[in-house]
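Per reviewer request, we include the raw input and output of the structure prediction for the construct analysed in the revised manuscript.
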Amino acid sequence: MRPPWDDYFMEIARLVAKRSTCLRRQVGAVVVKDKHILATGYNGAPAGLRHCAEVGCLREKLLVPSGERHELCRAIHAEQNAIVQAALHGTALQGGTMYVTHQPCVLCAKILINAGIVRIVFSGEYPDPLAREFLDEAGVELVLLNPFDNPHPEQ
């Protein structure tokens, strides 16, 4: 049986997340427009820098709770990496949908709004109500996808 489009692209985001080098949470993102993949990204250290597996996690050492003190994280977020990859290759994301394994944080939410993403489909919760508030105010559709419940049977 063929998966609906949302499930299909979310499964690809989960595969992308397997490249993550973060010790706390593996996140993958895929940007899609007109059922065509534009860019992907996963969370990890910037190109050329050592990974957390090599140097440790500062947020873990400082006992920083999830969803707080993003600036202490060595990694760039999956959503940010997808947008950077699109920019490096000259790909416009305006009007696209981002599939991401976890709800975006407020930093990523602001970047996604400015990148023109109109819909975000995610499967994992993240403790950042301000991100939801900003996305709602900007009119970005936020969809929590339950892999066992198909919200779009017509796809």
